[in-house]
Task: inverse folding
C-alpha cells in the first residue's frame, strides 16, 4: 500500500505513462471511467473510498485547528501535461494526528475536483504532504472568481507552457499565501484523484475560498488546454466531519 502511495507521489511529478505504457487522460479512451482497467496498478481507482467527493452533510466533530509551518521552499514549477505543479524542498510541515507531514508539492485543478454542497469552483489547489512512512495528507483550497490572487500573480508568469517542461522559480514560494485567512475545514478519508488512485489519503478541504481573477483563470486554462478534474465519486458510507 505505502509503496503504491510513494510511487504515486513520484508519478504525479513524472510522466503521463503508467508502468505498462497505458496512458490516462481526463476524456476519451483513457478517461476516468477507464482508469481502473488501464493497468493492474490502477485497481484502487475502482475502490470504495475514492476522491474527489461532493462535500455535504458534514458531522460536527470539533476538529482541532490545523498546524502548518510553511517555509518559502517552493523552488520549481512543472507542467506534466495533467497539471501545473510547484515542487518543494524539505522544511514545510503540517502536524496532524500526532504525526509530522512534509509538504512535497502543490498543484491545480480547473474546474475544482471536490464540490461543496454540490457547488463547483473554477479552480482548486491541492497541497500534498507525506509523513516519513509515505502516508499522505492533502489540503484543498477552492478559488472563486473575483479579485486577482496575489500568490498566483508571482507564480503564473513562470508556468511552463509545454508539457513535460519545468522552470526554476525566480524566488522561492511559500504555500502559506494560498490559504484563506480563516482555516476552518472539512475532513474525510479519500484517495489520490489521479491514477493509481491510492486510498488512505487524509483530505482536509478549507471551507473558505480565496479569489482568482478571470484573467488568471484564462491564463491557466490556456496553458493546460483541457479540464483536469476527475468526476466526483460516491461516499459509500464515508462520513465528512468539520
Ligand atoms: Zn490534485
Result:
Amino acid at each position: 500500500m505505502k509503496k503504491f502511495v510513494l510511487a504515486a507521489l513520484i508519478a504525479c511529478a513524472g510522466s503521463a505513462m503508467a508502468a505498462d505504457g497505458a496512458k490516462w487522460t481526463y476524456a476519451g479512451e483513457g478517461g476516468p471511467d477507464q482508469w481502473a482497467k488501464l493497468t493492474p496498478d490502477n485497481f484502487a481507482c475502482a475502490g470504495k473510498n475514492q476522491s474527489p467527493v461532493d462535500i455535504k452533510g458534514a458531522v460536527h466533530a470539533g476538529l482541532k485547528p490545523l498546524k502548518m509551518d510553511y517555509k518559502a521552499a517552493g523552488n520549481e514549477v512543472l507542467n506534466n501535461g495533467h497539471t501545473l505543479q510547484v515542487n518543494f524542498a524539505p522544511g514545510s510541515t503540517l502536524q496532524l494526528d500526532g504525526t509530522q507531514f512534509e509538504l512535497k508539492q502543490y498543484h491545480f485543478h480547473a474546474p475544482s475536483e471536490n464540490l461543496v454542497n454540490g457547488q463547483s469552483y473554477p479552480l482548486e489547489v491541492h497541497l500534498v504532504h507525506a509523513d516519513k512512512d509515505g502516508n499522505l495528507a492533502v489540503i484543498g483550497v477552492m478559488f472563486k472568481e473575483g479579485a486577482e490572487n496575489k500568490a498566483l500573480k508571482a507564480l503564473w508568469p513562470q508556468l511552463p507552457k509545454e508539457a513535460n517542461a519545468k522552470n526554476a522559480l525566480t524566488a522561492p514560494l511559500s504555500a502559506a499565501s494560498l490559504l484563506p485567512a480563516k482555516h476552518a475545514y472539512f475532513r474525510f478519508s479519500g484517495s489520490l484523484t489521479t491514477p493509481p488512485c491510492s486510498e488512505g489519503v487524509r483530505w482536509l478541504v478549507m471551507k473558505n475560498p480565496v479569489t482568482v481573477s478571470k484573467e488568471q483563470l484564462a491564463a491557466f486554462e490556456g496553458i493546460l488546454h483541457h479540464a483536469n478534474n476527475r468526476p466526483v465519486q460516491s461516499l459509500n458510507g464515508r462520513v465528512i466531519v468539520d
Remarks:
- The radius of gyration is 17 Å.
- Residues 42 and 63 are 32 Å apart (CA to CA).
- The longest helix spans residues 2-12.
- The pocket of zinc ion is lined by residues 107, 109, 126, 193 (CB under 6 Å).
